[in-house]
């Protein structure tokens, strides 16, 4: 009995959610290890070899801590806020293409949870809903510092979503589609010979200014340093999650890391070719003609190498996020808003006009 195509895609969606949670869990470990390396000190080394079980110890601690509800808090919304933040973070990963399709006889398994022709619009819509989890949690806590953090998060997200959206318009002008899979496939170089020109089809070489705008906005959207004003400890104690404890606190923390994972995945798809990698079709030709592998297995190994390339790009992006956190100081709030409204948005509009001119005169396609 074979599983129908819809069933396979359902399993892919569940696997995507599981991988997102696993990566978010071990991002906490990576954050500590990278921080220790950059600060020349010892990182986690107690729980398991090299501290590899530290995330599991943290999860057990969060699950077993006492449940706490502040006096005067709206209990239903107090619980709903972190749940919404985590749900929206996971939902945004469902449309990311992590690879091509695996072939098993007549069965094809696409390594993308949901393929829709408005995938980029879907991601933006879900990410925009994520701020409601922060707003609801901050307001329901009945704490002035939590409310201030939630208001900061909302105004920050609105400000930087505009610049990010404008930066992506330039990519959409070149690609002519909102489908993340189509944008990825358009960055594929098809041609003979072993050369590095494969990577020059990536959009980062066609949209360097748009990429810089996108990555700055991604830091702000995920509330990462130097844009972590919503949870600024020196001013707001802990920001919107000041009153949270146990796993409700954990959901907010894990949602932030899932958002970092999604942001780097989207960045890899839009600007770094997604699951494409140099010499990929030469590699497929080698597997097909120079080995004894069947056509299906040659194709599957080729696709799995693309998955490895995709995650290598994602992990490089996550490392960059963590490196910046332990390198740059936090902005003042007026500096943050000025950067978004008076610098990034005008630059993004200029980038749209420049891209339109280059497309008109045939410089880029």
Automatic annotation (TrEMBL):
- The reaction(s) this protein catalyses: a quinone + NADH + 5 H(+)(in) = a quinol + NAD(+) + 4 H(+)(out)
- For this protein, what is the EC number? 7.1.1.-
Q: How does it sit in the membrane?
A: Multi-pass membrane protein
Which GO BP terms, alphabetically? aerobic respiration
GO CC terms in record: plasma membrane
Q: Where in the cell is it found?
A: Cell membrane; Membrane
Q: Name one GO molecular function term.
A: NADH dehydrogenase activity
Class in the EC hierarchy, top level: translocase
- Pfam families the record matches: NADHdh (PF00146)
Q: What is its main location?
A: membrane
The UniProt transmembrane annotation reads 6-29, 77-99, 119-141, 162-180, 200-220, 257-277, 297-324, 336-364
> InterPro entries recorded for this chain?
NADH_UbQ_OxRdtase_su1/FPO (IPR001694), NADH_UbQ_OxRdtase_su1_CS (IPR018086)
Q: Give the keywords, sorted.
A: Cell membrane, Membrane, NAD, Oxidoreductase, Quinone, Translocase, Transmembrane, Transmembrane helix, Ubiquinone
The UniProt entry's sequence similarity note says: Belongs to the complex I subunit 1 family.
What does the annotation say about its assembly with partners? NDH-1 is composed of 14 different subunits. Subunits NuoA, H, J, K, L, M, N constitute the membrane sector of the complex.
What this chain does, per the entry, is described as:
NDH-1 shuttles electrons from NADH, via FMN and iron-sulfur (Fe-S) centers, to quinones in the respiratory chain. The immediate electron acceptor for the enzyme in this species is believed to be ubiquinone. Couples the redox reaction to proton translocation (for every two electrons transferred, four hydrogen ions are translocated across the cytoplasmic membrane), and thus conserves the redox energy in a proton gradient. This subunit may bind ubiquinone.
What is the protein name given in its UniProt record? NADH-quinone oxidoreductase subunit H
> What organism is this sequence from?
Hymenobacter cyanobacteriorum
């Amino acid at each position: 009995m074979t599983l129908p195509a819809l069933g396979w895609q359902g399993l892919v969606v569940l696997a995507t959610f599981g991988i997102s949670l696993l990566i978010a869990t071990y991002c906490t470990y990576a954050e500590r290890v990278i921080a220790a390396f950059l600060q020349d000190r010892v990182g986690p080394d107690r729980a398991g070899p090299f501290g590899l079980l530290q995330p599991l110890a943290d999860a057990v601690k969060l699950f077993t801590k006492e449940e706490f509800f502040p006096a005067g808090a709206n209990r239903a919304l107090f619980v709903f806020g972190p749940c919404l933040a985590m749900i929206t973070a996971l939902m945004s990963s469902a449309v990311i293409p992590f690879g091509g399709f695996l072939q098993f006889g007549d069965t094809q398994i696409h390594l993308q949870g949901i393929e829709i022709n408005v995938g980029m619009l879907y991601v933006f819509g879900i990410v925009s809903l994520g701020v409601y989890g922060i707003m609801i949690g901050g307001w329901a806590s009945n704490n002035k510092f939590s409310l201030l953090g939630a208001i900061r998060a909302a105004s920050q997200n609105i400000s930087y979503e505009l610049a990010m959206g404008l930066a992506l318009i330039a990519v959409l002008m070149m690609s002519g589609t909102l489908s993340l899979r189509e944008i990825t496939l358009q960055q594929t170089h098809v041609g003979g010979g072993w050369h590095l020109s494969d990577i020059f089809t990536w959009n980062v070489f066609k949209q360097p200014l748009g990429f810089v705008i996108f990555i700055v906005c991604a830091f702000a959207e995920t509330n990462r340093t130097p844009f972590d004003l919503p949870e600024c400890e020196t001013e707001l104690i802990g920001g919107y999650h000041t009153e949270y404890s146990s796993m409700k606190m954990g959901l907010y923390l894990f949602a932030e890391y899932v958002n970092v994972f999604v942001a780097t995945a989207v960045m890899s798809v839009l600007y770094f070719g997604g699951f494409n990698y140099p010499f990929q079709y030469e590699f497929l030709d080698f597997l097909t003609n120079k080995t004894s592998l069947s056509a299906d297995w040659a194709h599957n190994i080729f696709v799995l190498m693309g998955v490895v390339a995709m995650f290598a790009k994602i992990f490089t992006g996550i490392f960059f996020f963590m490196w910046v956190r332990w390198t740059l100081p936090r902005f003042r709030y007026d500096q943050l808003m000025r950067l978004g409204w008076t610098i990034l948005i005008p630059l993004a509009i200029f980038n749209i006009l420049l891209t339109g001119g280059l497309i008109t005169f045939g410089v880029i396609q």
